Structures are given as structure tokens and as C-alpha cells.
Amino acid sequence: MRIEGSVALVTGANRGIGLAFSRALLARGAAKVYAGVRRPEDFEEPGPEPLRLDVTDLEQVAAVARTASDASIVINNAGIQAGPGLLEEGSLDGARREMEVNYLGTWAVSRAFAPVLAAHGGGALVNMLSVASWRSTERFPSYAASKAAQWSLTNALRVALREQGTLVVGVHVGWVGTDLTVGIDEPKSDPAEVAAQTMDAIERDEPEVLVDDTSRRVRAALSGPLDLLYPSA
Ligand SMILES: NC(=O)c1ccc[n+]([C@@H]2O[C@H](COP(=O)([O-])OP(=O)(O)OC[C@H]3O[C@@H](n4cnc5c(N)ncnc54)[C@H](OP(=O)(O)O)[C@@H]3O)[C@@H](O)[C@H]2O)c1
Questions:
Q1: Looking at residue 182, what is its pLDDT?
Q2: Contacts 24+ apart (CB under 8 A), 84-93
Q3: Which residue has a Cα nearest atom 40 of ligand 1?
Q4: Among protein residues, the one whose CA lies closest to atom 30 of ligand 1
Q5: How remote is the CA of residue 114 from the centroid of ligand 1, in Å?
Q6: What percent of the chain lies above the pLDDT cut of 70?
Q7: The pLDDT value given to residue 15
Q8: In Å, what is the CA distance from 19 to each residue of 37, 40, 112, 132, 165?
């Protein structure tokens, strides 16, 4: 679909990959970008129109779907990493919050915007997934579980929204240089690169974005023996 002249909503648009999505949409000629943010009063980026949106708050989700009823592109980007390591003692609340935001938040926004997208000829729904949708780790097991759940949801949405003509795009990537990965000493993709490849996929009607070598390698390994993904298992 064409981005030029379109109206888009990006969740978690105040920083990181979400901010890069908003900038890329405007750079490709989007007529309007709604920035779904938890604190619109703190939003200083020129260009996007901020809307108060905590994706775990169903009333806010419904209100945003009413206000942004002219949107034909919705990007579910809001996400957190908050859970404990696999064998750590203590609370599992962080793991629950990850499910609330990454999985159920994406579900709530997608559900609310499905009729909005239908009213605009189908449009595009983009879910910001991860290489963690396909490969888990001892350090971030609950984050990976939430991204796997979000991937499963993305596949259900692909089927459910096909008839109304909605392009459902899943974006997979390894580490990206944002606040979420501060303290992780690994090579990282640039958020602008994630956004640029996602814009290309929307414009070419492609359902999956594999941003980096890690996501391409892990995607390919899914059909191979288990030790391709978990060599020490
Ligand atoms: N960075 C990576 O390596 C990487 C790799 C693969 C996938 N991803 C995914 O990419 C997405 C963006 O991550 P990022 O790296 O840009 O992280 P980030 O810099 O930490 O930004 C996260 C964004 O999500 C927002 N957010 C958190 N909880 C929210 C809620 N309940 N409702 C609405 N917005 C909420 C944050 O808003 P506040 O400012 O209000 O907290 C912020 O705008 C996430 O879905 C993440 O899982 C990231």
C-alpha cells in the first residue's frame, strides 16, 4: 500500500523504535501520524499528533480508535522487557506485565482498529515482533514468551483480516540500539533501519520483515534440527 498521503498510528511512539517509525512515516509522505504515548504532555517531537495511549487500558484504546478513525496504517510497537531470569527467585510480576503490554496490548489495539482499517480499504497492521518470537533464552524467558504469543496473535490476525484486505506485517529483529537494550554488549541494529525496512515492506505489500542477519538465520533454522537454535541443548 502507499504510505504517501496515508494516516498512521504508532504505539509507544515517544522513543526508541516507535519514534523511528513515526519519523519514517512522515519522511515517506504520510499525511498524519498519531503518536500513541503514555504522557502526551511530555511529547516534544515536531510533526506527529500525540494521543494518550497506554495499550493495557481498554478505555484509552477505544478512545484512540475513535479519534484516529481516519488511520489506514497501525503499528503495534509499544513493548517492555521486565521479567526475571529463568531460575531467579522472587516475583513473577514483570513477566505478567510483559504479557499485558506485548501480547494483550497488541491484541487490544488490533481488535479496536480492525473496523477502522476495514473502512479504509484494508490498510496495514504492523506488529513489532522479535527474534525472541522464535528463540528463547535463560536471561529473558518471559520476554521471549510474550513475543512468541504476539507472533501467534499476528498469525491469527493474518487469517482473520485477510478478507477485509488488511496487510498484516510481522517485524523480526535481534538487538536494536534503544533504552530497552542498554547494558547489553552485543551488536545492535539502528532503529532507523528497522523503520526503513518496515516502510519498504508496507509499500511492497510484504507480510514479514527480517531486519538483520540474526533474524534471517533464526528464521531459517526453525525448519532444521533443534541444535541449530540451541547448540548446547
Ligand atoms: N530494542 C530491541 O533490541 C528490540 C528487538 C526486537 C524487538 N523490539 C521490540 O520493539 C518495540 C519497541 O522497543 P524499543 O526497543 O524501542 O523499546 P524502548 O526504547 O524501551 O521503548 C518502548 C516504548 O514502549 C512504550 N510503552 C511501554 N509500555 C507501554 C504501555 N503499557 N502502553 C503504551 N506504550 C508503552 C514506552 O513508553 P514510555 O516511554 O511511556 O515507557 C516506549 O515508548 C517493543 O515491542 C520491543 O519488544 C525491540
A1: 96
A2: 84/142, 85/138, 85/139, 85/140, 85/141, 86/138, 86/139, 86/141, 87/138, 92/142
A3: 38
A4: 54
A5: 22
A6: 100
A7: 98
A8: 10, 13, 22, 21, 27
- How do residues 152-183 score in pLDDT, each as one tens digit? 999 999 999 999 999 999 999 999 999 999 99
How far away, in angstroms, is 123 Cα from ligand 1 center?
23
Closest alpha carbon to 92 in 149, 146, 55, 151: 146
Is 233 among the domain residues?
Answer: no
Alpha helices per DSSP H over 54-190: 58-67, 93-98, 106-119, 141-160
Sign of CA dihedral 136, 86, 102, 99: positive
The whole-chain average pLDDT of the chain stands at: 97
- The rounded radius of gyration (Å) of the Cα atoms in the chain is 17
CATH code of the domain containing 218: 3.40.50.720
Number of domains the chain contains: 1
Question: 143 catalytic, yes or no?
Answer: yes
Kindly give the number of the ligand 1 atom that is closest to the alpha carbon of 80.
27
Residue 1 inside a domain? The answer is no
Establish if 116 belongs to a structural domain.
yes
pLDDT confidence bin for 231, thresholds 50/70/90: confident
11 CA to centre of ligand 1 in angstroms: 9
Domain holding 38, by residue range, is 7-228
Q: Which three cell numbers stand for residue 170?
A: 510481522
What span, in angstroms and rounded, lies between the C-alpha atoms of 54 and 31?
Answer: 24
Q: Can you give the pLDDT at residue 189?
A: 98
